[in-house]
Amino acid sequence: MSKLVLPLKESVGVPVTPIVKVGDHVKRGQLIGKPDGLGANLHASVYGTITEINDQAIVIEADEEQPKDFVKIPDTDSNLDAIREAGVIGAGGAGFPAAAKYARPIPGGHLFINAAECEPILGHNISRITTDAEQIIRGAEYIKEIVQAKDIHIAIKRYHTNTVALLEELVRTHDDISLELMWNRYPEGEERAVLRDSGLYKKPDGENAVLKTTELPYAANAIVTNVETVYRAARAIENREPVMSKDITVAGRLNGDNKMVLVHKDVPVGTLVGDVLSAFPNMADYGELIMGGPFTGHSTTLESPITKVDGGIIATIPFPNLHGEKVGLLACACSATPARMKEIAEKMNADVTGVEWCKNAVVNPKTGTAKCKNPGICPGQAQTILKLRKGGAKTLLVGNCTDCTNTVMGVAPKLNMPVYHTTDFARRAVDMRIMRHILPENNE
């Protein structure tokens, strides 16, 4: 770790304006950038010297010796101000400034702590709970007070039995905290799915309701926040600690042919992917490096930096060569975008003949992004598959959720259409079963 690259824009909102200059020596935790509007403060993640400032990032050359102490955030009038000063943002990937989210109260509402670890392979949220559960619980209580919620719900997949048992023991003395046990399927952990499956948001007839694609959890008088975000908020309040690091899951073809999943806690923000992977000198040949999870992550490079929102680095297996096979893409609002799917198809040497969205996807015509009408509940894919086949597709590349993929497998084999999933190459790299049919354990 010699050079660190800290992007000026790591959160929703505006980029920060640097308040340092080239040649300055900075300390770990020192404020180096402030936003003029919605955004989050940026702090140095190491002791070092500023070697470059451009319109994208601040570059720091790290000192050889790195003291463990850090510059604390200033005293504040409130816990909310401490979270703002510390530059806490949504660590689950959304990157919304936490202070801005918590500044909107939900009197008598529900605070959800999202520990579902929605993406497969990733494990850093669960790992953080096992080592810092008590501080996370305290952080949840701080946020509950800030937003004026009446209770706290921790959403976690039930198959994490040891972590569930740990939390059950800790919340036993908290009458305002309960666990929401979720199924082991994707996209359990999407915030609207968390609210729907909790049973706290109802239709007039009493059935569980799902928010509209245009609605935020505020519409259900609720706030959903990632467990690492809560941990960083607690560190800001109790330790006066700014956000200087990120928890990362590192997985895939890391040690020869061995498949490994490791958790690196407190990786300094700005650390290059190549420096993280330098710990594995015997990496096997890989297809690509994914930043994030296998569903919604994106391809990355050794020169890319870790930011406050990144959660994983996955080295996939090499891609198969389809030798120009005509492939139809079936996109899902909860997974890879069509652009990302085309990138994967190109790496497979496939000829894309058409793109269709799942029927539940509501596509924004301006951005091309989509949201699912009912995350994880699939209406069936026969029509879309038949349309892709009529357009010339001989093979399918899908990016669907667990339920959608299950319905694909009810149709594609009957049409003699082979199926690849965008997550196959990451899953195979860690010896995880590829997604096709729903198994009983998905609903245990």
Automatic annotation (TrEMBL):
The keyword Protease does not apply. Coiled coil: none annotated. Residues 83-232 form the NADH-ubiquinone oxidoreductase 51kDa subunit FMN-binding domain. The keyword Electron transport applies. Residues 3-59 form the RnfC Barrel sandwich hybrid domain. InterPro entries: Ion_transpt_RnfC/RsxC, Nuo51_FMN-bd, PR_assoc_PrdC, RnfC_N. Keywords: Electron transport, Repeat, Transport. NCBIfam families: PR_assoc_PrdC. This is Proline reductase-associated electron transfer protein PrdC. The lineage of its organism: Bacteria, Bacillati, Bacillota, Bacilli, Lactobacillales.
